[in-house]
Amino acid sequence: MKTAIINEEQSSLTPTHIALLGFDSIHSAGLISLISSKDTTLHIESFSQNELPSFSLSLGDQSQVIAYIAKHNFKEIVHALSLLTSEQRPPLIVTNLHSLALLGLNQSDFPTGSRFLRGADLVEGITQWDHTNSQECDSVSIADGSDLFSRLGLSGDQLRLFIRIVQGDTNAEIAKVLVLSEKGVESAIKRLAIKVDCVRTAPEQQNLRVLLGRRYAQLLGIL
To answer: What are phi and psi of 19, to 5 degrees?
Structure first.
């Protein structure tokens, strides 16, 4: 679906305040400069990690929140977004991860109406956006979110197993959560490895958990 990156219908609806969450200082500065070049009347603010719990206090109903989700910050960002009220504009969720499902997230973890897109599409959309020309509102592709929450063919239990392996949980800890025996967990790990194309070429030298951790990073798009 094509829609505007900042304003959705016409220039009169352009929010006067844009809040950036989860971006590091360099990316925040770049986005602030890029957005400001389009409309100098906008107030753009970047919130650091320790400001997230209280950021919503400074937002008006027409503020547009743009939140960046990464492996290192997703818990804090999801919590911060939960502080938004139903009267406020749905946030724009940006990520460069291949699958948010691998973080244990689904669309219900985000405010109703949240829009999702890749980082490159955010920059492209802002670059193309022209608030003076309503014909230029169809400037960037906003995903419905389904492509960013792909389980990559894994079942719910396999997904939970994958995440817990990466978190460093022992077989005993995983067995309690998945209601399996420890031998059952071992078998499930082997089946998971096959499912995600993670096969040992020299079993006596390679730790399957280490290989799964590396494969997890590859599937997230961070390795």
So the answer is: -110, 125
Does the domain at 156-220 match CATH 1.10.3470? Answer given as: no
Over residues 101-150, the pLDDT tens digits come to 999 999 999 999 898 988 888 888 788 776 554 443 344 455 556 778 98
Please give the Cα distance from 70 to 137 (Å, whole number): 28
Cα 154 from Cα 50, distance rounded (Å): 35
Q: Tell me how far apart the alpha carbons of residues 109 and 74 are, in angstroms, rounded to a whole number.
A: 11
Could you count the other beta carbons within 10 Å of the beta carbon of residue 107?
16
- CATH 1.10.10 positions along the chain are 156-220
**Segment 43-95, tens digit of pLDDT:** 889 998 888 888 887 788 778 899 999 999 999 999 999 999 888 889 999 99
CA 194-196-198 angle, to 5 degrees, is 60
Distance, in Å, from the CA atom of 66 to the CA atom of 142, rounded to the nearest integer, reads 13
Structure token pair of residue 14? 């352009």
Indicate the CATH number for domain 2-149.
3.40.50.2300
Contact 19, 64 (CB under 8 A): yes
pTM for this one? 0.83
